[in-house]
């Protein structure tokens, strides 16, 4: 089965009117998008704005898969300041509502990374917010997903102690799959090294619900298309094949022409080509996994022994 591809709307910029970017995405042959605009602001989308976006997407033949929720500036879902935390909850509700109206199924959140003296308080505040949101989100039919990061949104320091993975485990131990799952940003794992990549693979096998597929040299967050650098993409394909990632869900690229250079149309064309190459690897990995499962089942039936009479 051919796997569809999606790409982030903010591949060339995350502010301003999204119409031109959507037109270029459709021109490049993509069928699905991950909404990336305003991912790092406190912007609240109103109903008229969302309805206008829906019309543009319908006319272009584009479908929403995922929404990148805002990491928050003053409206932050894990802020130790209570009114900021409550405002962050409202910001997440806003993105959930937008996702429902546009037909997507997940909202991506950034977890907290901070100095060790503050992390317990931030996690407790985040847990409080997720519990307050749970019924609302479940009733919407949308899931929340937490993304693996390589540095703090607020400190801009690299997470060399892999605190972010401890935070992901903290929340996954407290909330069920289906409500709270994992968003795998492949590039973020590459930056932090082998142990981070291993832990991201482990999380993906257990809780993967959406993807930010991108590549880098390991030294910066370039957000290049998959298969650009010497990263372990065959392993990633195998992990996706073995994960709970919905088989019919498009594979999602999160790329950025600004950090890669060149013409934006040529960049989109290259991203699509490399995305299709990677999708073929995922299809092959799924086929291999299915054959292995069938062989194991046949072996188990064959070793059942003689029946009692």
Automatic annotation (TrEMBL):
Domain of life where this protein originates: Bacteria
The Xylose isomerase-like TIM barrel domain, residue ranges: 22-258
Annotated spans, Disordered: 280-309
InterPro entries named in the record: IolE/XylAMocC-like, Xyl_isomerase-like_sf, Xyl_isomerase-like_TIM-brl
Pfam families xrefs: AP_endonuc_2
SUPFAM superfamilies, per the entry: Xylose isomerase-like (SSF51658)
UniProt-listed Gene3D superfamilies: Divalent-metal-dependent TIM barrel enzymes
Sequence ranges of Low complexity compositional bias: 280-301
Name of the protein this chain belongs to: Xylose isomerase-like TIM barrel domain-containing protein
Protein species of origin: Alkalispirochaeta sphaeroplastigenens
